[in-house]
C-alpha cells in the first residue's frame, strides 16, 4: 500500500497539535468563541434600541445563533469547516401586518424599507442594517491564534 493510500485513511479531525488538542476540538472551541463575538454584537443591537410602543419583542433572534454539530472535511480545498447557523424556529418572525415570515438575521444585517414609506420611522418603516457579523468577526480576529479563515456573506 502506497503512502498516498495510507494518508487517505487518516482522520484529520483527530490530528493533535502541540497543545494536545485535536483539530476538531480546536475548530469547535474557536467556533464557540466566534459565536460569542457575534452574539455580543447582536446583544449590542438589542441594547441600543427599545421598540416600546411600536411592537413587542420576542427576543427569539437574540437566542437563535448556534454552532453546527457537523464538522465538514473539504478534501478538494484542503479545509476543515464548521458552520454557525440560525435556528429557523427562532430566526423567522411573523410580519406585524400578516403575510410572509421574515428572516430576522438578514433583516437586521442588511436592513429594510417599505415600498410606500409614508411614516418614515427608523426601525419601523426602514432600517439601514447593522453589520453584527462583520463587527463580531473583527472582534474575533483581534485574537485568532490559529489563523482561522472565516467566510461569510458581506454586506454591499
Explain what this protein looks like in three dimensions:
This protein is an alpha+beta fold. The termini are far apart. The mean pLDDT is 88. 7% of the residues are buried. The strands form 4 sheets. It has a two-stranded antiparallel ribbon. A two-stranded antiparallel sheet has the order 2-3. A two-stranded antiparallel ribbon has the order 5-6. Strand 5 and strand 6 form a beta hairpin. It is elongated. Helices cover 33% and strands 14% of the residues. It contains 5 helices and 8 strands; from the N terminus they run H-H-E-E-E-E-H-E-E-H-E-E-H. It has one domain.
Topology:
Layout: H1 3-8, H2 23-47, E1 65-67, E2 72-74, E3 79-81, E4 84-86, H3 88-91, E5 92-94, E6 101-103, H4 104-110, E7 112-113, E8 126-127, H5 132-141
Antiparallel strand pairs: 1-4, 2-3, 5-6, 7-8
Helix pairs in contact: 2-5
Tally the beta strands.
Answer: 8
Mean pLDDT level: 88
User: How helix-rich are the residues, as a percent range?
Assistant: 25-40%
Structural classification: alpha+beta
Please, what is the oligomeric state?
Answer: single chain
Biggest sheet record: 2 strands, antiparallel
Low-confidence regions: none
Strand order of the largest sheet: 1-4
- Outline, from the CA principal axes? elongated
Order of helices and strands: HHEEEEHEEHEEH
Radius of gyration computed on alpha carbons:
20 Å
Number of domains: 1
Quick gist of this model?
The protein has 156 residues and is α+β, with helices and mostly antiparallel strands.
